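Good morning C.,

I know you're traveling, so I'll keep this short. The sequence:
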Amino acid sequence: MEEMIGSGNAAPLGSYTEAVDWINGLIPFGIRPGLERIELLMEKLGNPHRRLKFIHVAGTNGKGSTCAFLTSVLLKSGYSVGTFTSPYITKFTNRFQYNGTDIPEDTLTALAAKLRPLVEEIAAGELGSPTMFEVATALAILYYAEYCFPDVVVWETGLGGRLDVTNIVLPVVSVITNVGHDHTDVLGDTLEKIAFEKAGIIKPGVPVVSCVSQPEVIAVLKERAEACRTKLYLAGEDFTYELEGIEEGVQSFNFKGPFRDLQVGIAMKGEHQLSNAAGAMMALEVLRQYMAFMLDDEDVLEGFKDTFWAGRLEEVSQHPRIVLDGAHNPEGAESLARSLPQFYQYGKLNLLMGMLANKHHESYFKHILPIVDTLILTEPDFRKKMDAEELQAIAESLREKYAKDHLEIIVERNWGKALQLLQSITSEKDLAVVSGTLYLISDVRSTLLQQPDSEKGW
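The tokens, ready to paste straight into the viewer:
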């Protein structure tokens, strides 16, 4: 590890693999909330982030899908767009996109080589080494500010908001999708505490859009917006969205906002996607109204309909039918349980899941157990994985109160074997679902879609 980050005379980064290995080599520094290291890094680079327009997106669930909606509509409307998201589901370069295309490997390598001596300089000082996510964020800023110059950057928070590295930017509009129980070990154990962290992306004079629904969360956001003397556009108060119907997999909803009303159709499945799309629509309306963005109805509607985001109620196999969904917290599980019967007809529901060890799994099971016939518990190929037998103990403790009478629970630690088992027990009229941490979703997806060079990570 020392040779990787501390010595200052490490070998140059000669290849993409070396560059990614160096960045991932910073993972042991963990998640260290605070902006001091990224501010120092930006200062050393001449503050390139100040030359860019950002749409900053935070929230417990739906950040990635919201970023996908925003990117799709802006591209369709003729704008060039940078999109920075995490975690990535196929390859490290996924998180740095320009106009829907990953950063070229040689560009990533060149930017990592530029950052490395600065990172080592900071690592030798009192602030300690920048983390993997700090370096990835700096790399994204350099890519957009010095290589491709997008009209706008869709900018997803990593964790929380207030002390998240991405909060170094001053956006043109901010979006807080929702607030739920996730990362409680870092963000706090109540909705108010988590909301306080998410509300940290609200900046003076920068309008903010949110689809949060819990009264205590709304109160926190309103208080922060008032303190910043900025306008909060809140679902249910400043704009509304209502499902019209579902036809051939397309959900249509009526969006009513302060500036115009529109009937929008989305191919993304799940009722939670309505709220993500509506939040994105309101943010676009703010850009149109106050930043003179040209967003014609036709382009907007086409952009929403064409939006796709991997691993979110995504059907990746038809024989048997296998759907992937990265629901990994109670709110995600609740949406999944409600959405499956809306979009699929099936006999038995067989669910394969694996989790990380820092989540609210008991609440997750309360939503999932009532709809499942066979539950296969496995472990993702990741250092923070949750022991499958511990998951089984939680599920068994809830069986009597929540599960179907005939529920079968199977433990198979090896996720590859667990996937084969899932395929073998799912008949043509049944439905198989793989859910849980995106680290598991990523591996299963690359196996089923035969992507041998797939990487994964946060």
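Safe travels,
E.
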